[in-house]
Amino acid sequence: MKDRTSNQEPSDPAPGSTPDDASRLECDPTRHGGRNGEVPADTETWMEQVLDPTNVQNAWQRVRRNGGAPGMDGMTIEEFPTFARQHWVRICTQLRDGTYHPAPVRRVFIPKPDGSQRPLGVPTVLDRVIQQAIAQVLTPLYDGEFSDHSYGFREGRNAHQAVHRVQAAWKMKRRHAIDCDLKAFFDTVNHDRLLKQLRQKISSGKLLRLIGRYLRAGVVLPDGTREATPQGVPQGGPLSPLLANITLDPLDKEIERRGHIHARYADDFVIVVRGEMKARRVMESVMRFIECKLKLVVNRAKSRSGPLIESCFLGFCISSRGAIKWTAKAFEKFKLRVKEITRRNRGHAIAAVIAELRRYAVGWMNYFGISQTYREVLELDEWIRRRVRLYHWKQWKRPGARRRNLIKLGANPDEVHMASRSRKGYWRMSRNSIVQKALSNHWLKEQGVPDLRSIWIKLHYGATARPTP
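and the corresponding structure tokens:
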């Protein structure tokens, strides 16, 4: 394990400290080279803004809320406060002197639905705090100049707004879309070009060098091998989303300059135009701009132009009538996950299964619920309840247990044998009228089974809407 005195972060209050001192990072410019607490007027103002105690404290609180795994040094969020009390003053001095060197990020791989893996980088907790402090200083400088149609990693903006932007384009009779797939965007960002962009606004050489060191810090693979990062913005660091938006902002401005309608969320974007031929021309010219001007790589095999109703964006598509719909791929992924959670041979307690199901299904519906597919929501609701009934039936196992539980839930004792002794399979029995009446919709809802219909209604008609029984 790496020596923890090189790169780490702030933490919780020391014993006996007051609540106001909780988790506070002591990096006061008036004590460590500042000018009586005033912000310097020279180029070093940048670093003092980053290290301002309030800014650093807010950064630490944000990192602590987000949680996350340890970096390559093994330090956890809980261990960081003790480290910070001992070493934060020294780290501040290194940052001011320009001698601080970030630790490499720990590489982890997240499986993707297509079988491939998405590489993510896990910085140390200390580097997460410093990156967050930098991002808090730079975001106000850049965010106000970003395109109104950039929706990723920005306060007050989200993926739903991006999807509604595409729907608005359909209503404006723009029915052809251009999907350009950026190949491994976060791993192919050109450092020289990005730093040149930053230099246009940031006058501090120390801050620019620090950002450059973060970009070139390297990664440590699961087998312990260290790899250099001559290009790319590692996913996983608090500063990376802002740097990604800075990198792609010229693309937004170029598309708008040409008069096209588009929406971008991180590196996923779609352009909507009138006419098939125009879509092809725009696609070729935009790909040239991305490759020649932004020095990024376009995956031409996955990039396409065609009718908007055939285009997928952030898990949604637009129907032939202009309605927002979740994609078939998103729908199938949801059903596969629910089947996995309610798999009848898991052997987990039903309460744990329902809790896990609720977390996943409610989260999924809060995102995909903007889909204007009410009938499919009703079908999903019925299907999920049937999956839970199947799990109950499997758990009860023997006829005697099934009889006792059915009667306990209100089934007619004279009729219960028609279900409890049936030789039909679990899936068929989950639709049996006696089982459905005992494990009623109302009872399942009381147990915590998610009600997707209610969530959908609130998303479309407001929190005060009352779904009818």
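(Above: one complete record from the training split.) Confidence is low (pLDDT under 50) at residues 1-23, 26-42.
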